[in-house]
Amino acid sequence: MTPTRQSSFRLFRLWGIDVHVHWSWFVVAFYSISTRVPNYAAPVWGVLEYLVLFLIVLLHEFGHALACRQVGGSADQIVLWPLGGVAYVAPPSRPGATLWSIAAGPLVNVALVPVFIGIFYAVRAAGVLNQNPDLHAFLRAIIWMNVSLLAFNLLPVYPLDGGQILRSLLWYPLGKARSLMAATVIGFIGGVGLAAFAVWLRSPWIGIMTFFLSSNCWRSFQSAQALRKIEQLPRRSEFACPVCHASPPIGNFWQCPQCRQPFDAFATGAQCPHCSATLELTPCPDCGTARGQRSWDASIRDV
Description:
4-stranded mixed β-sheet
């Protein structure tokens, strides 16, 4: 349900981040521009309005990506599509790091509010708006678009930014799995509200967005259930993940890179008991990062 580089066109690379546009974006762009053009005497303003919307969404996604890198995570891809943009970020498995990576996107929109309003009043003070009604309508439109995107993204509906920010805040008292479960339950309630809003407005676009959000929310709920089961497993206290410091669970949770059989990497010293292949990097079931097994030794946790 989330766009990837498949069926997307690469636009450019900036700060080590590849920016792609999904093919469906062009279809929706053509439709959206055609609906904006009648609002202006000169059609070019309708095109500029949509291009500014494109820029706002792109800056928002760069906010996520650069903030994720700032806290030690990885982010190297942004895909723009009809429902907005997706920054593929992988922050460290800590609530603070996740919170900053998510909150930085809406903060970009917050920073743009005084910029756009300042431009509006500066142009009005120069007397230009009275001479150009299209410019007046254009500036009002981009201010409204930015504020609307900010307000919508802050709705506590997972996986919108608001839902992910809520999850990050709940992570502190509830832990990783239960915070995700709570955020997705709240997201389902918000999704019902959005669905009712879509019916009231008779808006197929909001209906499509609601379906997308609800589908992702359901998958996240299933992930929360799986995480919860992992958290409740017995653990090997003599080992600890060098990233999130969680002790590994006891059981066959690792897969041999050669014969693909599951085995307990910490019971066999990372060597597959079926074919004797060695697991060079041992993934953490809790945070997903992979490190050499020696770095998991709790006695040398600081190494």
